[in-house]
Protein: Glucose-6-phosphate 1-dehydrogenase
Amino acid sequence: MRDPQDRRLTRVAGPSALVLFGVTGDLARKKLLPAIYDLMNRGLLPPRFALVGFGRRDWSDDDFRAQVREAVENHARTPFREDVWNQLTAGIRFVQGAFDDAEAFGRLKETLEELDKTRGTLGNHAFYLSIPPNAFEAVCTQLAENGLASSEQTEGWRRVVIEKPFGHDLESARELNEIVESVFPADSVFRIDHYLGKETVQNILALRFANEMFEPLWNANYVDHVQITMAEDIGIGSRAGYYEGVGAARDVIQNHLLQLLALTAMEEPIRFDAEYLRDEKAKVLAAVTLPDDLESYSSLGQYAGGFQGGEEVKGFKEEQDIPSDSRTETFAAIKLDINNRRWAGVPFYLRAGKRLGRRVTEIAVVFKRSPNLLFRENSYEEFGQNAIVIRIQPDEGVTIRFASKVPGTQMELRDVSMDFGYGHSFTESSPEAYERLILDVLLGEPPLFPRHEEVELSWKILDPFEKYWGDHGVAPEEYAPGSWGPESAHRLLARDGRAWRRP
Structure:
């Protein structure tokens, strides 16, 4: 039963079945299955909930239960409880088959009908496609042909969840959207961007619109520029099959960072409702303009081998299954502008990379310098620009940087920071992003899910960069592991008289 003092996720899903395609993948094992258990453990899934795995493995229901239990015991955030497990496992089923196997989807239909009767799932079925985009069409076609996608002739609802990447460019994104929405209505399609499920991402809206001291300054009159960073201190690990040919720009900038840009720069929606929130994000993305000089205001990098944190690490081209002549970037940075009244003249700098100095995702809103008329004896090296830094991960919170007098007889100023951390201010831990997003799918609440218009607008922003890099043979520049990217990234800001923040 849900703890009445736990206000993190107060809505409880109704009777439903979640069908998970791609149950053998890392995402399912490390994130999705543990999140489902954690939701059950928090009392946020009903007793009449069912989980159906679909895959090629020759597994029985018990085999799949054993796999789920292993994933839960290794990766769940809440303590393992036998009573919760027994409640969850009673509704676990597995259907063996390929994505284009009509007979397997017939068995899936029979399984869901059995669960509707025995578990009381009431025909409420969500299909989670944790699979490569090239398999979407086969799965959607089979769902439609077996009457699993439509609820017109039966009771209950049908929803589909798709994971990024949403294509590899604008054209492919549109093709994927046509495939999915030819089977499911647009309001039944949930595109997962797990960053939007993070508590601190949602706190951007609270910080801006619930606090009068920030919003009046949140514009070109006071803001000098904005930096959005997603840095990882690890390499690609076992993701070579996915990462090669995709790169940092498509993997991170097109979705995560442009969504963070939209939330940072958007106007206040009429209310916290999916339609209004998405409309305001789309307006910002539509107003984004690219620099005239794409070469000077973009940077590509690829991590080299060397030492990081006292350990010797491989370069990208030395990673398993990566070609020795690979031109895939592991670091990308771009400059963007927003052509509207609020942000005209304020550059937004976005960067993402692997094997960087530390793991951090943050949004830094850097304000213009004060005139410094009263404190001429102090140089700008001692105190500089005020900044509000929203830390998305790993130490979630907000830092405000401002100038303060150094104790003593002289009027000496120095930059100091005032820090808010979620872990210090709230006893409740933040729910894991996938917990929030899976619950929202089952509840049918879409504010945190980007619609196809946002996806297409994001590709319209990134595609010209990708085309320029490809047409002009721009090769990624090597950078040392543990550094903050290639020299070209630093030159990008230096051209504007600025420098990257050191997180």
Notes: The chain has two domains: 16-163, 196-369+451-494.
